[in-house]
From TrEMBL:
This is Type IV minor pilin protein PilW. It comes from Noviherbaspirillum aridicola. The chain crosses the membrane at residues 21-40. Pfam families: N_methyl, PilW. The keyword Transmembrane applies. The keyword Membrane applies. It comes from the Bacteria. Keywords: Membrane, Transmembrane, Transmembrane helix.
Amino acid sequence: MRHWIPPHAMSRSSGFSLVELMVAIAIGLLIIAGLAGVFVNTNATQSEIEKSNRQIENGRFAVQLLTDDLRMAGFYGEFNPTELVSPATLPDICATAPADLIAALPLHVQGIDNEGGLACLPGIRAGTDILVVRRTETCIAGSGGCDAVDAALPYFQASMCNNVTELGSPTVTDRFTLALGTSGTARHKRDCTTGADRRRFRVHIYFIADSDTGTDGRPTLKRAELGAGGFSVVPLVEGIENLQVEYGMDTNNDGSPDVYHPAPGSYDGCSGSTCIDNWRNVVAVKTWLLARNNQPTPGYSDAKKYVLGTDAEGEENAVGPLGDSYKRHAYEALIRLINPSGRREL
């Protein structure tokens, strides 16, 4: 038996009215808009976190690279370079001839304060420092994990033979050899018969370039490395746009720095051999690196001032405000030069 349903009841259960449908659509659009806003904000926040993480990683890696190399500055195997006579003038850091390398041996580190334009350092960024590290490899050429002797590369030999032609010679340069490959007079081990170990001689020049490759505009920490036929430039870390250095000089010969200065070659109005000796007295190095994100942040303007040590007049070496859309962070490190400072403590 069928039940009768009033017509007005049937109309109420037949579907949504136009007003109800429009209200539902409006609410749905509001929810979608809110979710879209949350998604955009989350995505932007994640992007900024990733930029910051890359910048922090790059800054720390750059500091570690400099620290590791500086800790080995002045390592010449068994040879003590304090016996060497200082060069008459400050060495040309781009020189590659063995005679020039030998003359520069007493200066385990060297630097140029806020100057550029050197032929071996293409694209150097204006207003940044240059840092030079001289040392030998810790491994012996041809031994496990160390490349064999290459005739085109410079190698250092420290004599261990106590005879009149080597360690017993009154001429300091008879106690070692620095030459290409196996050329030159060989030095010997304690038995005065076996050839002394050869270690590859390294000169590393750190600088900031305007671009990583070509004219991409990404400031980069680079290193010019002494190799076959001259220096080759190796990009190390992107986003490093400034390098500033101060050198800790040991003025009382106790192995500890007594004064820091960005340009030992002009410290305290020095002249002649005193300026060269200031470089020989460097036993510690302070470095400041300014790292920036590789991508700009929309809507951001860098209004910060970054203090990267002091200048030659003792004033703050300040950078900024730069007013662009890149976020930055400054990194500072104090590195003891183990070999030159340790020799002074003996």
